[in-house]
């Protein structure tokens, strides 16, 4: 399984056929995006047959602009029919626009990206899943069991061609693991973890099993509840949800709808100096990499929050024009089916000055360690409020005092962000409703815990 | 209301007849051929952004072949449903693929129904202040097995999303006679002064306006799905034949209700759709099974559903309906000393391990001495599956009402359209989260 030159050849052939058809149609400006991906997913669930899923997906998307009308359509496949459907769809449903949504060629460019990662050898996923099952049982001393593990490996290639003759291409692979563990004989919930595996050759199964089981092991204690102003420790998954909740602050909005100023303190600070957020599309270890964004702007590292101070916003070309925001290569194509929309690719907390997570855990006295969110963190930028429902454990120093199955926190979002005292150096990647987010453990001082 | 959707196979019937006959000869790698799923899908999205109308169309087609051996289940899926694509897909596992010799006649292009685009245009104008969007989703599908092939008919759906504060969404069958009424409800603003129920309070809750369907979708629908039942993750697993609720409660999963979003005439494994009674006279009576679950639980299959051609079928509920009783909804409300009336639920979850339900309430009322006192602020209500079922009041309302908020149900990250219809239902105690 590899998105080899054969696939790139097919993609180039598909874009060439589409180009001929668009030129014949007389479209003024246009852009073609063609993608091929293959994925293999293996599910290991104790007591059930192995499930193996092989999916090959291809498709073409077309954007057009002609006499102040813009269109977009996508169709599956790389054959002549797919190009025809996409082009007809874009031209037939084009609507009047004030500005050309296609970026000019002079803004397009490519950043050098690392060569495609290696895919694991055949049989690796099945072996890894079975070994993980043993490792989880061993680490949990029989108290924990693997509910299921899904190992996904895949490769993809895409080609972007504009009517100006500009061409970009990229191919890469991805490997990930989703694992669910549960406590044997107890109804304390499923603990789900997702791991981005940068290099399967270096994948440490024992470390992964430890990471997957650590939270489930912590809650094997008696239930304890508390309330009041308390120090918080956010597990990386909870921290990632918090970053996802504030991500819209770094996307373009029209001036009259901009609520960022509601959240800034008198020094123009949104968060504590401990917090720096970046969207890094050049990070070779991040889940999404490539030479350019979804429209052809060179990939770059964009600082969104610089030591607590908002710095830049991401925008697609269309959104940037509409909101008078400079475009910084902020377009994302989740699939060929989607319009290249503004979005974060690898939104991450900068952890270069992070401290070891164990140090953070030991530094808070009588703190609530939030282990997992039970719902998306709600934020209201207009009223500067947040609400979080999570599950956690109460710590007395480094000792676990008890499990708080459902705890609610709410208060000022600005105060929450400005009371982040330190971030850990244990950054992990999570899939959230805002895309991939890399977050470490965080220490937050004195937040109102409702109970 | 338009009639039931007409089955339209994505490929011509004669060719599929021939393919099905040939599928009996497929062998490969010690696994036997299970089925071939073919799908065409059309999705159209319309939105107004910065005063400009944007329309995006997406036409998808793909196929998936399933193979099974005692130790593994294998699914190969790929884009395309041409003869070449299907032949290549089957040859990935089969030693020899005898394709039909007759010429394949492609099905006509899928398009939105007449009038949809104009309707969407006018609706998007209204949605513009809310950054809303309108989607049209339709599909043609067929399942080919060695013993024959089956076209699958599902109703075309529309989804309307209203963003901002509060965000809300509607999912309905295109052409439903209540659509205009539901859209008006979608556009209703939040009441200015609301009452926030104190967290930790336990109160009786009257589910009105069809919202009981969402609650029972979680408490009974998901818990009756065969994958959860087989792994022991459902508290209902051991309670088949046992009384779990009031004797006046009857809960049915009914995919033949073509006015509701979860309808189909055959499931995505080619099994004819039929209603399944889950609870009758308060007794838990059956599971919702795909073919695999049916084999293990010795129940009829018919709930194997796929989110797309690239996804394997899994046991999922369709349209959950609660049989109306005889109680007047006003009587149920006027008997409340202090409680809540819920009129709109924005979302709900059930944890298959802790068996805890969380209902996200969008609209409702505080009731004191039988009278609506203050509009309820959005909140979450929670309770254990079995406890809440046991706490359902025997008086079931006579006002069966479809719910337009249930919409896409997501399980293990896989979304599927579902529907529900329910009368007013009183649960004696739920906790405010």
Describe, in plain words, how this protein is organized in 3D.
The complex is a heterodimer of chains A (451) and B (433). Chain A has helices at residues 5-25, 80-92, 124-139, 205-218, 236-246, 260-263, 317-322, 357-363, 413-418, and strands at residues 29-44, 50-66, 69-76, 95-96, 144-162, 167-183, 190-197, 228-234, 277-280, 301-306, 309-310, 331-332, 341-342, 346-349, 367-373, 378-380, 385-396, 399-412, 420-423, 428-432, 435-439, 442-449. In chain A, the strands form 4 sheets. Chain A has a 7-stranded antiparallel sheet. The mean pLDDT of chain A is 92. With 451 residues, chain A is an alpha+beta fold. The model of chain B has no long low-confidence stretch (mean pLDDT 93). Chain B has helices at residues 13-23, 83-91, 116-127, 179-187, 212-221, 226-230, 291-297, 329-334, 385-390; strands spanning 27-28, 31-49, 52-68, 72-79, 133-145, 148-152, 157-162, 168-173, 202-207, 251-253, 276-280, 283-284, 304-305, 314-315, 319-322, 338-350, 356-368, 371-375, 379-384, 401-402, 408-411, 414-417, 419-422, 425-432. In chain B, the strands form 5 sheets. In chain B, strands 1, 2, 3, 4, 5, 6, 7 and 8 form an 8-stranded antiparallel sheet that branches. Chain B has a 6-stranded mixed sheet with strand order 12-11-10-15-23-20, covered by helices on one side. In chain B, strands 9-16-17-19-24 form a 5-stranded mixed barrel. Chain B has 433 residues and is an alpha+beta fold. Strand 2 of chain A pairs parallel with strand 4 (72-79) of chain B.
């Amino acid at each position: 399984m590899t998105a080899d030159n054969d696939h790139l050849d097919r993609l180039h052939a598909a874009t060439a056929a589409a180009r001929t058809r668009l030129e014949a149609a007389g479209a003024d400006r246009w852009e073609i995006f063609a993608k091929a991906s293959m994925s293999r997913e293996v599910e290991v669930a104790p007591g059930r047959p192995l499930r193996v899923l092989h999916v090959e997906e291809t498709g073409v998307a077309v954007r057009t602009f002609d006499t102040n009308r813009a269109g977009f359509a996508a169709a599956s496949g790389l054959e002549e029919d797919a190009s025809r459907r996409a082009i007809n769809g874009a031209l037939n449903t084009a609507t009047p626009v004030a500005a050309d949504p296609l970026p000019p060629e002079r803004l397009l460019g490519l950043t050098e990206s690392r060569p495609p990662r290696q895919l694991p050898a055949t049989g690796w996923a099945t072996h890894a899943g079975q070994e993980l099952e043993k490792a989880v049982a061993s680490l949990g001393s029989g108290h924990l069991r693997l509910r299921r593990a899904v190992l996904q490996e895949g490769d993809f290639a895409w080609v972007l061609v504009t009517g100006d003759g500009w061409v970009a291409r990229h191919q890469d692979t991805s490997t990930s693991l989703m694992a669910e563990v549960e406590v044997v004989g107890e109804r304390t919930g499923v603990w789900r973890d997702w791991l981005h595996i940068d290099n399967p050759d270096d994948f440490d199964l024992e470390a992964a099993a430890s990471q997957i089981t650590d939270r489930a092991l912590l809650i094997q204690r008696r239930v304890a509840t508390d309330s009041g102003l308390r120090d918080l420790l956010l597990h990386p998954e909870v921290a990632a949800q918090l970053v996802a909740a504030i991500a819209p602050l770094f996307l373009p909005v029209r001036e009259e709808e901009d609520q960022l100023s509601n959240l800034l303190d008198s020094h123009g600070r949104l968060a504590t100096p401990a917090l720096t957020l970046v969207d890094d599309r050049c990070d070779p270890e991040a889940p999404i990499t490539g030479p350019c964004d979804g429209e052809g702007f060179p990939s770059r590292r964009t600082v969104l929050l610089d030591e607590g101070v908002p710095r830049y916003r991401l925008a697609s070309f269309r959104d940037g024009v509409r909101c008078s925001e400079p475009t910084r290569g902020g377009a994302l194509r989740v699939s060929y089916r989607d319009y290249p929309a503004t979005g974060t690719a690898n939104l991450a907390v900068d952890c270069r000055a992070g401290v070891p997570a164990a140090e953070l855990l030991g530094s808070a006295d009588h703190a609530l360690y939030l282990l997992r969110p039970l719902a998306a963190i709600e934020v209201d930028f207009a009223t500067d409020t947040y609400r979080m429902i999570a599950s956690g454990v109460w710590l007395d120093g480094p000792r676990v005092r008890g499990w708080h199955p459902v705890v609610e926190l709410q208060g000022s979002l600005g105060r929450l962000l400005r009371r982040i005292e330190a971030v850990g150096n244990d950054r992990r990647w999570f899939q959230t409703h805002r895309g991939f987010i890399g977050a470490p453990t965080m220490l937050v001082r004195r937040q109102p815990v409702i109970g | 209301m338009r009639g039931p959707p007409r089955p339209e196979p994505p490929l011509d019937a004669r060719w599929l007849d021939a393919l099905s006959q040939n599928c009996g000869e497929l062998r490969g790698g010690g696994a036997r051929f299970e089925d071939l799923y073919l799908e065409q899908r059309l999705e159209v999205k319309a939105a107004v952004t910065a005063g400009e109308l944007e329309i995006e169309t997406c036409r998808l087609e793909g196929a998936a072949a399933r193979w099974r051996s005692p130790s593994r289940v294998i699914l190969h899926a790929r884009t395309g449903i041409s003869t070449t694509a299907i032949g290549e897909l089957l040859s990935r596992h089969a030693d020899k693929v005898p394709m039909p010799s007759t010429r394949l006649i492609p099905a006509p292009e899928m398009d939105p129904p007449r009038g949809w685009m104009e309707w969407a245009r006018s609706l998007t104008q209204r949605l513009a202040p809310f950054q809303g969007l309108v989607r049209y989703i339709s599909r043609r599908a067929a399942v080919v097995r060695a013993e024959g092939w089956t076209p699958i008919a599902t109703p075309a759906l529309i989804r309307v999303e209203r963003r901002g504060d509060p965000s809300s969404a509607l999912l309905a069958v295109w052409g439903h006679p209540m659509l205009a009424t539901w859209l008006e409800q979608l556009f209703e603003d939040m009441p200015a002064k609301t009452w926030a129920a104190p967290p930790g309070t336990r109160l009786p809750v009257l589910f009105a306006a069809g919202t009981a369907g969402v609650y029972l979708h979680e408490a009974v629908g998901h818990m009756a799905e065969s994958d959860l039942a087989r792994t022991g993750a459902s508290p209902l697993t051991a309670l088949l034949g046992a009384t779990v609720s009031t004797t006046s409660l009857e809960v049915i999963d009914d995919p033949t209700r073509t006015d509701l979003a979860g309808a189909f005439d055959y499931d995505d494994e080619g099994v004819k759709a039929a209603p399944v009674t889950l609870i009758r006279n308060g007794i838990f009576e059956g599971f919702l099974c795909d073919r695999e679950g049916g084999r293990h639980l010795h129940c009829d299959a018919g709930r194997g559903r796929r989110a797309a051609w690239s996804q394997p079928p899994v046991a999922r509920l369709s349209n959950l309906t609660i049989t109306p009783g005889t109680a007047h909804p006003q009587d149920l409300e006027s008997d409340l000393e202090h409680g809540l009336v819920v009129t709109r639920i924005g979302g709900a979850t059930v944890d298959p391990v802790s068996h805890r339900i969380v209902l996200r309430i969008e609209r409702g009322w505080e009731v004191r001495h039988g009278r609506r006192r203050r509009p309820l602020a959005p909140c979450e209500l929670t309770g254990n599956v079995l406890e809440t079922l046991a706490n359902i009041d025997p008086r079931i309302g006579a006002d069966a009402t479809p719910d337009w908020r249930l919409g896409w149900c997501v399980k293990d990250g896989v979304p599927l359209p579902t529907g529900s219809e329910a009368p007013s239902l009183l649960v004696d105690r739920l906790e405010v989260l």
